[in-house]
Structure formats: structure tokens, C-alpha cells
Design a protein that fits this description.
Radius of gyration: 24 Å
Structural class: alpha/beta
Number of domains: 2
Strand order of the largest sheet: 1-9-11-10-12-15-13-14
CATH class of the largest domain: Alpha Beta
Largest sheet: 8 strands, mixed
Number of strands: 15
Helix content: 25-40%
Shape: elongated
Length: 464
Amino acid sequence: MKKPVLKLTIAAAITAGTFSFQAAAVQVEPVYAQQPVNVLDHKIVQHFNVENVYQNIDYLSKEPRIAGTESEEKAVQYIQSQFQSYGYETEIQPFTFLSYTEPESIFLSIEGSDETFTPSAFTYTVSGSITGELAVAGLGKKEELADLNLTGKIALIQRGEISFAEKVLNAAGKGAAGVIIYNNTDGALNGTLGEANDAYVPAVSLTKAEGEALAAKAAAETLTASLTVEGASVDEKTSHNVIAVKKPTNQTKATNDIIVVGAHHDSVPGAPGANDDASGSAMTLELARLFKDIPTDTELRFITFGAEEVGLIGSEYYVDGLPKEEVSRMIANFNLDMVGSRDAGDLVMMTADGEPNLVTELAQASSTRLNGEAIPYLEGGRSDHVPFAEAGVPAALFIHDPAEPWYHTPDDTIDKISKEKLQDVGEIVGTAIYEKARFDNQEIKVKKANKVKVPHLYHNEDIQ
């Protein structure tokens, strides 16, 4: 799972290494929750096979599936083969994106000192090797640098007020050959410059204690620093979306509606991504298998997206490439991200604007019928429902709150997956989709969502 709009308390928690939405959850009375579990729900519940989901997670999580790599390509081929085994004609949709490779090594030293440092690179920093005078440059704001000559120097800048990228660009604009940004709170500083830029110079971070000590020494005497960043690069790579479409069973009685069910199949470096998001991809596959032979009056699109972890790129590419007529026909996007960890919290939904829509109403109704209570929803992004919401499609993310402790770590493995949670999500989402897509239910009226604009790639905490 990747980046956008959450409440500030949530964003701060994510930056601190947790992932919890509890404070913002909202409970509403579901619109379609009047009837108890019925025969039509059983048609979904009885045919949902959690073992299929588990086995697909197991296959997909053998290794990390980093976007644009051979391992992601292998996952794409597997997902396509599974769709085809259910009888779908499939499309693999390629797209290119700029991929950042982290530095292989970072080194910082002060001439005449045996002091050791623990620098970290900012995402999108460039490589380089510089030796120059260490220049204290405040917060790196333009007005602070106006009277400074930073030509050939390494600027020492404190975190705060403006983005990391602005600090680096401001210093580089005054001639700095490198930048060190130190934290304004305790702990390590792991940040991003947001995107590639040819104007960047090598930029690394230090802890508050390291930075303050250096700043004090540099204010008292001239210090010469050596900074080396090796192996960082930005390259164009190719990722893919995998698409399977189920047309209405009887065209003469069909609606003109489209429901999209999806998840991202890529993972972050070093993480097998069993929960994030092999669980969502495997759930999408099983729902596709389940609905293949169930009569529906609505077009169902099952999609796994590439390059979510590097900025929701696959889902944005898919939505941006759709004809306006198709977007206008889309009445719902069910986005499945991190839906199976045994150590995560309860199931919640997230909408980009925090408002209810057709997806939340259908899912709250189905969870009420199945479990006796409605799933709460809250405002948030960071996943592939956002491009749909930005296009005006009612969309919601299904995820557990709080996330497991090994979110985005090598420990996100198959042994942490709960079949009970997978079963619960599959039943709720499956029956919610069927409630709208079945032939004998024309009572549910669709209200199109308003388009929203979500700054969904990064949190402020990530970039300043």
C-alpha cells in the first residue's frame, strides 16, 4: 500500500512506523441493511473458497514483487493465467514510469575528526562525491540563503517549515555541491524529495543530535566535510495492469453500469508482501472466479494494478486512459489492500473525502446482514481507490486497522495470514457486489460521487 490524504494524526502515525485509523472512524446506519442474511447472500458465501485465496497469496509472496522487475513480471503472468483458467479473456496493460534506485553506500566524514556519522539518503537524491566547507544554512529558506555564498560547499540545514526538496533546491541554487538536513525531533530522519529533479545535489539526513553538534562546531570553526552517495539512480521501467472483464450475462436485460474490483500486485523492496498486497490480489482473483458463472446484469472488471507502491501509478494510468463515457458508467470501485493479516486490527473502509458512497453503503449493509454490525468508514487515501475517486467514481478501500507490525518489512509473509479474516472480507465484499449486480434487484439507485482532488503521493511528514 502507498501514499495520500489521511487525517494529520494518522499521517504522523504512519511516518512513525504505525498505521492506525481508529480516531477518525465513522459509523453510520447503512442504507440497505433492512433484510437479514438471505438466500442470495448464501449464493456468494457458500461458493467463496478461502483456500484458493490462501494458495494464491502463498504463490505471489515467495519473493518481493517490486514494480518494473522480473519478479513483478512473473506475478503478472501468474495472475493472467489464473484469470484465464476461470474462463476470462484478459488484457495486460503496460505503462512506463520513473523508478528510483536507492544508494548502495553513503559516507560522511569531517576532516581532522574521527567522529562517525549515520547518514541516510533522501529518496530521489542523486549520487556524487564532494569535499567542501560545511556551511550552516538555517532552515534552507531562500531569505536565509540570500546573503550566503554556498559555491562548492556542503550546506547543513535543519528540518522544518519547507519541504526537503525546497531546501535542497534552494541550497543548490546558491551553488551548494551537497546538502545535509538534520532532524528537528529525536530519532532518524527518513524522507523523500518527492520526485526526480536534475537540479538536485547529493542530499543526506542526520539525527537531531548529530546535526546540532555539527552546527555548533561549524559556527565556531571552519570544517571541511566529505560526502559520498553511490549507486542512486532514476531509470525508466515498465510495469503492468492485469484486466479481466465479465460482461452482463444477458445483454437485453443489462444495465449500463460498471463495477471495478481491484488490488495492487506490487510490493516494496525487501518485503514479500503477503498481506501488502498479495492478499488483495488473491481476493480479486477469487471474486473473479466466483462471479464468472453467476448471472449479473452489470459489467464487472477485475484488475490488479502495478506500481502502486511508487505512487499509485498503475491505477492512475488505467483511469486516465479510459474514455469519459466508460468513466461515467462506473458506479463503484472496491479496492482491496492488506485484507488478510492475522495481526492487524478490525476491518474498516476509507473514502478519499471521508463521505459515504455506494460502496460504503453496500458494504455496510452486507456486513450488517452477515455480522450484525456495519463496517466503519473514514477519510483516507494511500491506495488505488484514489484515482477512481478523483474521476468521480464512488470508491472505497477495504483494509484492517491498525496494520500489522511488519507492514513493509521482510516479515510480511504467508504465515501471518488469517484465513478467517480473508473469509470475512470475501463474504462482505462479494455479497455487497452481488447486491447491486444481480438481475432481480433494481431498487438501489446510484448517486454519482463528486470528483475530489487528493494529494495522494506523499504525506507532509514525508517531504518536510
